[in-house]
Amino acid sequence: MKNAQKSIVGIGSALVDVLVQLKNDQLLEQFGLPKGSMTLVDAGLSQKILTATADLDSGMETGGSAANTVRGIAQLGGQTAFIGKINDDEIGQFFKKAFEDLQIKPHLLKGNIPSGVAATLISPDSERTFGTYLGAASELVVSDLTDALFAPYDYLHIEGYLVFNHELIEGILKLAKKNGLTISLDMASFNVVEANLEFLQRLVSEYVDIVFANEEEAKAFTGKEPEEALTEIAGQCSVAIVKIGKEGSLVKAGDEFVRVAATPVKAIDTTGAGDVYASGFLYGMANGFSLADCGKLGGLLAAEVIQVLGAKIPDEVWPKIFSEVEAIKA
Predict the structure, then answer these.
(1) H or E segment at 34?
(2) Are 60 and 98 in contact (CB under 8 A)?
(3) Going from the N-terminus, what domains does the chain have, and what CATH number goes with each?
(4) φ, ψ dihedrals at 176, nearest 5°
(5) Does the first or last residue of the chain, that is N or C, have fewer Cβ atoms within 10 Å of its Cβ?
């Protein structure tokens, strides 16, 4: 195993999640939000959702898919940074302070409109649905980015949600490739994949080294069931990961295939499970772990996060995770 840990920069929407426990799915229908999806909403609808859910149990956490992944890597002790856009408002300051407290280098550019907020609506069966107002995060443009933002890092982790802005995501990937970074992409959501299929397939083939998908995203991308989907995706990149919920995950790199079992736990909320799976996997790769151990660490983090509300693993759980990491390193 290599001793020199590699560094990882994430790029994506700097959001704050407002996590709401729904009593039923009536509000999802009321606001036209397909259950289990991420739907972009405008400032007006965002405010209506937050107002309609104000009396329900809720909490606030930093969010955004790539931001969640970077936070998990930092909590594991990885060297991380994050590129995004916020406003200098209460939500933006909440995000910035949370990242600085975790020693994540924040490359946070300043936007002109309010910082982004994701209403994270958690159904009684633990499925989560996002009504996301991107706000300042949506103002990120290619001209904001420079070689100096990417050059110090070894890996770039990017969220698939950025694929709606074709010029931005391709510009980011070109800059990262030019600066020699290994590129990791999380496919984000089945509806994101369906809406941008041909473009996303080209991006994966031309730029991406590591692809994370759950079985719905993998099916949307390939039209195939998990194992066949995995083989197809792995043919287009260096490492493919398909997460199959309670069944664990499948990993393929070249001729190497690994099936990783899931830890059986009671799911309270699946928010962030895929994001922290990527945290564990990428931390493992940055530290020279085997593919099986990368998947095992990813699965361990995912199992912990689904037992709590939100995408943040509780502080008291980390000592147990650290002892597992030490066991893998040994």
Answers:
(1) none
(2) no
(3) 7-12+64-114+138-329 (3.40.1190.20)
(4) -65, -45
(5) C
